[in-house]
Request: fold
Amino acid sequence: MKAIVAPLVLISLFLAGCGTSGPGALFRKLSPHEQYAQTLNNAGLQHTALGKAWAMAAESSLRRPLSIKIPFKESGYFPAEDARATAYRFRAQRGEKLSISLEKRPTTEYHLYADLWKEGEQGETRLEASADTGSSSFDYTVREEAFYILRVQPELLRSCEYTLTILSGPSLAFPVKGGKILSFWGAERDQGSRSHEGIDIFAARRTPALAAADGVITRVGENTLGGKVIFMRPKNESYNLYYAHLDEFSKAEGSSVLEGDTLGLVGNTGNARGGSPHLHFGIYARNGAVDPLPFVNPERKMPAEIRANQQYLQQRMRSSAKTQVLRTGPGLNFPPVKTIAPGTLAQVTGISASYFRIYLPDGEQGYIAKEALQTLGKPTRSLTLAVAKELYDTPDVLAARKQLLPAASTVDILANFENYQYVRSRTTTGWIVKEL
Reply:
């Protein structure tokens, strides 16, 4: 089980403020989610069943997130009657800029909280970024390759729909206008004696090599491999950009530059002499070279559009006549969560591409192909009760009893779950224990 660095149990300002580890965590600004948690605490709702359920949903979603791949787009739904949260786990590379947006319906009079957490090597999570109180969108520059978890949760007693979009793009500007990357990180060099510590961007000789960010020129000089080279430190960053094989310098050491300024001209100096002009672009951090492609990759992929019919969002449906597989993510390449028996009741709480995200009666979430569900309009069959049956609110004999169905009464069976049947009587719907 994962350790949660910020276990929002709604019992004190201290607990509400523990979103990050370290000596200064207690004194940092609370996220909008934590501010709302503190509001519930001040109102005494931490002692109520609903308040506890909201806090538990926030915690448990981080322990059992869904799996997705970036870019990603999904429409989702939260019912007012249940305290729920949904968390999405994905891998992100150092240098990427994540753009996270939430379009919500209705658009006013309630808050939908979005928090981004980084997962540590031991499974612990640390809060990295949140949507501002007045917005449901934010950007985040990835400074460490890791798994990240985005948690989405509404305030209590509010039904809402939302569309979540997560895109990734470069955190730096592309350093050669019109240039093309033809050699990548890790390619063999010198008969395999070393690997390529950068990317090669090919362009016409004396094409301007541009500053990829605001910053300072930290070194200008020449070396055997790179020929004429420039090192640049972006503003507020701990790494240096490396421009090599330049034909000419345009900036002196110590110069301040703005993004887009010309630092030099593309050439083929150093060990590129005699070859096609290109810029060798590298990034050097404290622990050595890192792959610069995620920092400047001009190719921006868009998520698959939602192809499933959105009229099914928030509806109760049942699985088809065949056993189905519930998966951690929207696709066959994601691991299975469990198998689902034919006719199992499920509420559609999300739609991504051609997959439904469903919520089972026991609280389990996962993804299933849209073709695997059908509406409840037509019952599977009718049943005449041999004995009187208690009709429960949920599939649990300890749940609230809605009514007593008399013997010889007829009900329509709409779906099932484990040892219970979801039925419709003349006046209402609910759960009965399956007859043996």
Observations:
- Helices lie at 13-16, 32-42, 49-63, 293-296.
- The chain is about 10% helix and 45% strand.
- The mean pLDDT is 91.
